[in-house]
Amino acid sequence: MQSTNWVVERVCAIDVAKASGRVCTRTPDPRRPGRRASTVWDAPATTAAITDLGEQLVAAGIEKITVESTSDYWRIWFYLLESAGLTVQLVNARDVKNVPGRPKTDKLDAVWLAKLTEKGLLRPSSVPPQPIR
């Protein structure tokens, strides 16, 4: 039996900006057993686009989503994906990005967030439950 080096098999991470988010999913690669496949794309920060993204992630069997906090831009992503029935965690950008020697691009940040998510290495920020919001 092959051991895995991930805790969560199907994950998504979103590096949030004002008008869009860089989305990365990491799932088992069907063509290469025991390997992971990353898919990265941009999604607009609109209600319709994020709602569609939620449906797509549910259909893909995504188990956990990490949204990186940037100002208040994370709220629409967190709330709409959560309302789609997905498990969403918010993380502070300061806790994730300060890795010396790692190049900085939005795509690499999204992949890095997804890899940390699948390994259970992120400390989520506190988000009040829906009734309190």
Q: Can you summarize this structure?
A:
It is globular and about 45 Å long.
Q: Could you explain how this protein is built, in words?
A:
This protein has 133 residues and is α/β, with parallel strands linked by helices. The protein contains four helices and five strands, in the order βββαβαβαα. It has helices at 47-59, 74-83, 93-97, 106-118; strands spanning 11-16, 20-28, 36-44, 64-69, 88-92. A five-stranded mixed β-sheet has the order 3-2-1-4-5, sandwiched between helices. β4 (64-69), α2 (74-83) and β5 form a beta-alpha-beta unit.
Features:
133 residues, alpha/beta, 4 helices, 5 strands, 26% strand
Strand order of the largest sheet: 3-2-1-4-5
Helix content: 25-40%
Beta percentage is 25-35%
Task: Give the beta-strand count.
Answer: 5
How confident is the prediction overall: mean pLDDT?
89
Number of helices: 4
Which blocks of ≥5 consecutive residues have pLDDT under 50?
none
**Broad shape:** globular
Spatial separation of the terminal alpha carbons: 45 Å
Rg, alpha carbons? 14 Å
Q: How would you sum up the major sheet?
A: 5 strands, mixed
What structural category do the secondary elements indicate? alpha/beta
Q: What order do the helices and strands follow?
A: EEEHEHEHH
SSE layout:
Layout: E1 11-16, E2 20-28, E3 36-44, H1 47-59, E4 64-69, H2 74-83, E5 88-92, H3 93-97, H4 106-118
Parallel strand pairs: 1-4, 4-5
Antiparallel strand pairs: 1-2, 2-3
